[in-house]
Design a protein that fits this description.
single chain, 7-stranded mixed sheet, Rossmann fold, elongated, 6-stranded parallel sheet
Amino acid sequence: MKKLIIGLCAATALVAITAPAVAKDPIEVAVIVKATNSEFWQAVLVGARNYAKEHPADVTVTTNGPPAEADIAKQVSILEDTVSRGPKGIVISSTSSEATVPAIERAMSKGIPVVTIDNRVKTDKVASFLATDNAAGGKLAAKQLAEQLKAMGKPLKGKVALISSMAGVQVLIDRDSGFEAGLKEFAPDLVLLKPRYVNNDIFNAVNTAQDLVLSNPDLVGVFADNNTTGSGVAKVLTETGKKDSIVAIAFDSDPQEVEALRSGALKALVVQDPYGMGYKGVDSIVRALAGEKLPAYVDTGANVVTKANMDEANYKNLLDPLGRAIK
């Protein structure tokens, strides 16, 4: 009996010694998006939060961002404050390719890995970059526009408008240049009008689309390079009765764009995976902190969604990433 008691006491002591040694607090990953007023960026946050909910012992996620994408200075301030606070890692979709660089480099120098998503910043001092190949996505949009015109029995001649959310943003520059290159390849006789910029404002998008439609009777197509411009174009084509004569292709998805796709006001959406950017962004921080060398760039993919395939399971998840939130 004496030996048994000693054995039990030894086992108890072993537990007491080793349990605290393996216990650890969850690491904090700060996720900063371009804007909190957009469903696209909310989808990024859903992906990030879902990762934390699936790994509650390992990760906590804090989220932040300016109200609107145009407020670059606010995003820079948020990032600077976050770096000073010192989370274990940062995931950021930087609106500006340059303005956030000093704070990103400061974080990296302090041993805080930074994973950038969506927009490439002008420094190689990041742990990894996760994004859509936007030039390829723009080319997909041009190919789809040409195919939709052919399906409607229209000749590939006339004018095409390009409505861009903002000037000077690299993801949009890549998207728009990819679209222009795609038109030259798939429909070289179409004339691409000079890009119009709307500062990511829905009212500007509507007014710009209306001006283009009414002042160009030979307009046969429109490319809208994000969800704000896509929703604006869809509204104008619906209200002017032009949705069956002008082919509109847009990037991204929000409820207004999805509704417009179903109604035919938008003929196709080039859809990214914002949920995946958030989810994989947090996972990348976890792996970087574990000592894993991450790839410099990860393509998160782009898909063309039309009315014909929008109810298929894979595309439904891409069109409604907010519906994937874990309660």
